[in-house]
Amino acid sequence: MNGERYAQITGWGMAVPERVLTNADLTKVVDTTDEWIVSRTGIQQRHVVASEKESTMTLATRAARRALRVADLAPIQLGLVIVATATPEYSFPSTASLVQDALGATNAGAFDLSAGCSGFIYALSVASDIIRSGDAEHVLVIGAETLTRITDWTDRNTCVLFGDGAGAVVVSAWDERCGVQASVLGSDGSGGDVLILPAGGSHAPTSHETVSSGGHFIKMNGREVFRFATTIIPKATEAVVEKAGWQLADLALVIPHQANIRIIESTAKRLRLPLDKFFVNLERYGNTSSASIPIALCEVIDGGRVKAGDKLVLVGFGAGLTWAAAAIEWGVPTPVKPQPWPRRWLASLRFALATIRSTVRRAERRVYNWAMGPVGKEDWRGRLRQRVDRWRGRGYT
Ligand code: UT7
Known about the structure:
Layout: E1 6-15, E2 20-22, H1 23-27, H2 34-41, E3 45-47, H3 56-71, E4 80-84, H4 95-103, E5 109-113, H5 119-133, E6 138-146, H6 156-159, E7 164-174, E8 179-187, E9 195-196, H7 208-212, E10 219-220, H8 222-243, E11 253-256, H9 261-271, H10 282-285, H11 292-302, E12 311-318, E13 322-329, H12 341-372, H13 380-392
Parallel strand pairs: 4-5, 4-6, 11-12
Antiparallel strand pairs: 1-7, 2-3, 6-7, 8-13, 9-10, 12-13
Helix pairs in contact: 3-4, 8-9
The site of oxa(dethia)-CoA has 21 residues, from helix 2, helix 6 and helix 8.
């Protein structure tokens, strides 16, 4: 201990939809083959949302609940919830606010972060700085996506690549030197059009025209992104290793964004590191954008691939164009012992109570607005509303 504060990952969890879409399934939809997809990307299958009940928020909430259980943390202890996503539940409110409500994290601020597939590392970096500055004790960082909701299933250049899922980590204040040691964030907006969702924003608001021209689907120049990725991933890895004061040879594992096995192979070659130092699970999930690194991190930890003292690099690239890397010294002993049943039960009870609380608050708002009449109306209901507002400290008037 040296009196400094560090930001340590103390909980982790992931969630993917149950439905699996294999390459063979895709051959029935577009002009492609299993051989092409496997040889050009390494992807064999992906998980996809199957019903309206599944969304970015529901996946994020499932992953977050698991992370909180591992951290053995009550949601009210969270100071902030950040959701990195390119496929938010809505433009607004933020997905993070919806997750905060679903968890019952009533003391937490919440915001979404948009940095393409690099989003999770951006969010981790922000969380780490907030914790180290002393502004929060625990921050929930989530990467969550439902990319298949913005996928053009007639475009073979993109539809074979993406999948859905979420990964979450709890980042907590720690007094021993471990956790996030350095991060590197970068952006080159001149490449914005290389990977873009063209419509639905202020530049091209939703219209018949944007819908009929397919403006609400992912558009990508795959070769350009590939070229960018194979250059920036080795550079970002080297930069973060240097910033942490480490050598490449110190690394126990690199967890890269899971987009294409050829990008990972090229990175290994450029860095002169053996391929088995790179964790790969893209064959099972495809590219889940900002969820890919936290999902991979969960599998690394739960699969026993990391132990206390190991040095890890997380590194990603994506729309923006953006890139990001984080150097992490693992500090939590693994595997984590399963919690005794009373603690598991308590966690389930907290989540059930959060659902009830959220439902009651929504209902209370509706009843209040119905019973008290419109704001500013000077009849008896208006006067009653003013009294109740004053009593509740709402003060709309
Ligand atoms: O998270 C960031 C998101 N994006 C990425 O990471 C993408 C990075 N880029 C890539 O991974 C690769 O560029 C792709 C996998 C997207 C494409 O691989 P490629 O080796 O760069 O292929 P290409 O785009 O150069 O296309 C080669 C050929 C083309 O045919 P022609 O023009 O040579 O006759 C494509 O039309 O492969 C064709 N092709 C396909 N064929 C069968 C493209 N997609 C498919 C497909 N099945 N699904």
